[in-house]
Design goal:
Structural class: mainly alpha
Largest sheet: none
Number of strands: 0
Shape: flat
Number of helices: 3
Length: about 80
């Protein structure tokens, strides 16, 4: 629990430094991308802090390409 609070505090500090300048310069797309990436990073960090293992992105790619290969096999 303490680790997740620490991660949230660090994320809040990062947002506190970055968001005002993005709003001031009216960079709405960059603010959206920043928010999405920060949220994904915080979520993954909290999951790791609780000791859960995350699957490798390579497993998803292997699954997708295997599925695509199996679908294309009858056509070849």
């Amino acid at each position: 629990m303490l680790k997740s609070i620490g991660i949230l505090l660090i994320a809040a500090a990062i947002a506190w430094f970055e968001v005002p300048s993005l709003l001031e310069k009216k960079h709405k797309k960059e603010l959206l991308a920043f928010s999405i990436f920060l949220t994904i990073g915080v979520a993954l960090s909290i999951v790791l802090a609780f000791g859960k293992t995350l699957p490798s992105p390579m497993e998803l790619l292997t699954f997708l390409f295997t599925l695509l290969t199996d679908l294309m096999a009858p056509l070849l």
